[in-house]
Amino acid sequence: MTFSLDDIGLGDVVTPETLEATLAHGGGISEVGSLLLGLTRRDLADDPVALESVVVPDAWGESLIAWLLSRPEPLQSRENARPSVGAWDVHTVRITTEIFANMGFQFGGGHARSALIQYYNREVVPMLDGKFTEPVGRSLYAAAAEITELVAWTAYDLGRHGLAQRYFLQGLRLAQASGDRMMGGLLLADMSHQANYLGRYNQAIQLARAAQEGCKDVSTATPMALFYAMEARAHAGNGDEVQCARALLQAEKYFSKRKAEDDPPWSRYFDAAELASEGAHCYRDLRIPSQAMQFVGQAVDLCDPMYVRTLAFDRLVQAASYVHMGQPAKAALVALEAVNLAGPLKSERYLRYIRDLKADLTSFDCEVSVQAFNALVAEKYPLLGR
Predict the structure, then answer these.
(1) Which residues pair with residue 91 across a beta bridge?
(2) DSSP 122
(3) pLDDT at 111
(4) CB burial class (10 A; 0-12, 13-18, 19+) of residue 329?
(5) Mean pLDDT for the stretch of residues 44-62
(6) Residues 278, 283: Cα–Cα separation, whole Å
(7) Mean of the per-residue pLDDT values of the chain
(8) pLDDT tier, 182 (very low <50, low <70, confident <90, very high otherwise)
């Protein structure tokens, strides 16, 4: 049985107005805990108000300006607050975040998401209103920003874009309070990725450039490479080959200077395989298959087998590039490998890759391998395309 928020007495506490307040960036840091508590309660209850919330593009622009213009802010003393938070609590949040992130890479954002949201709601969010020293508070806000980013990504991966946007925005506010500019840049890069996915290419460019501008004096090389890669993806979506190549070259230049030991732990995933994957996506979107194939070959060869979702994405990019090269049979064979590789992957983004490829192959139903691909998709994802 599913209970609504009204059934459990929270209908008047967690209101649609509370949900919309999570679009704001400029409020006091003391408000973030209550905002996230309301948002996660709706999330846990599968409340349509949250799950069906829409993206508000203007909120991206308002937040990037607020973040760029922000200054260090003092943390309020909370002598009588509860719970009491120490360095070990912050460490526990970071370790737990890593565990859930690895599950997402392997099984998709839908896997164990309810467990992640429950942990976040019951353990992490209450800490934001707790008692802590200033150093612990800064670390706590940074760790909370990181797990909020993960929560946002799991919503994004399931196609709940309005919900994801609200988590990304509150994660950015937490990163700002922590003083961690690179984490703030990551949240802006995430929003750039989402804007690009939703076809908001110009805003995706602005978000990526804001990350670059806000971090250029403090960031290590790998995050900067990521920020430029996001700009390249947005230019590719816009069909601008020249600007895409320029941004991708900047990403490669920064990546060549990386010293992994100096990078923040969250940037470990952005390795040579991930950079190559971004290049492959760029040239797929630009429909320059020869370039896409060069990048995707590197991406597949270098990718850690643990990253099942990434490998599935890369294989489907490769398949799309074969279609663009006029080789639909080869495309379908590669796609068959990708679908079998993905297994029970819970990711709406993955399903979009499948839908897009099916559309590309519509004119080639006479090919045996295309028929086999369509049959496998119909068997594994019977609701796809309905």
Answers:
(1) none
(2) I
(3) 79
(4) middle
(5) 91
(6) 9
(7) 91
(8) very high
Report the distance separating Cα 351 and Cα 337, nearest Å. Answer: 15
Give the helix ranges, DSSP H, for 45-86: 48-51, 57-68
Query: How long, in residues, is the chain?
Result: 386
DSSP state, residue 74: P
Q: Tokens 């209103």 identify what position?
A: 129
What does the buried/exposed string (b/e) look like for 239-267 if buried means 16 or more CB atoms within 10 Å of the residue's CB?
ebbebbbebbebbbebbeebeeeebbebb
Distance (Å, whole) CA 247 – CA 336: 33
Q: At 84, phi and psi to the nearest 5?
A: -85, 130
Which pLDDT tens digit goes with each residue over 128-176?
Answer: 999 999 999 999 999 999 999 999 999 999 999 999 999 999 999 999 9
Taking each helix axis as running N to C, give the angle between helix 348-360 and helix 134-157, from 0 to 180 degrees, rounded to the nearest 10: 30
For every residue of 167-179, DSSP letters joined together read HHHHHHHHHHHHT
Strand partners, 131: 84
145/68 Cα distance (integer angstroms)? 17
Write the pLDDT tens digit of every residue in 281-292.
999 999 999 999
- Chain-centroid distance of CA 200 in Å reads 16
pLDDT band at 93; cut points 50, 70, 90: very high
Six token digits for residue 117: 């949201």
Report residue 50 as tokens: 């949250």
Residue 34 confidence (pLDDT): 86
| CA 126/CA 120 separation, integer angstroms | 9
Mean pLDDT of 91-115: 88
The burial of 194, by beta-carbon neighbours within 10 Å (0-12 exposed, 13-18 middle, 19 or more buried), is given as buried
Closest C-alpha among 342, 60, 86 to residue 208: 60
Token pair recorded at residue 286? 């630009």
Amino acid at the residue 217: D
Residues 6 or more apart from 10 whose CB is under 8 A from it?
A: 41
Contact 42, 4 (CB under 8 A): no
Reading the block at residue 346, the tokens are 């819970």
Greater confidence (310 vs 81) lies with 310
- Among the listed residues 378, 382, 374, 314, the one whose alpha carbon sits nearest the alpha carbon of residue 342: 314
- Cβ contacts of residue 236 below 8 Å, gap of 6+? 244, 281, 282, 283, 285, 286
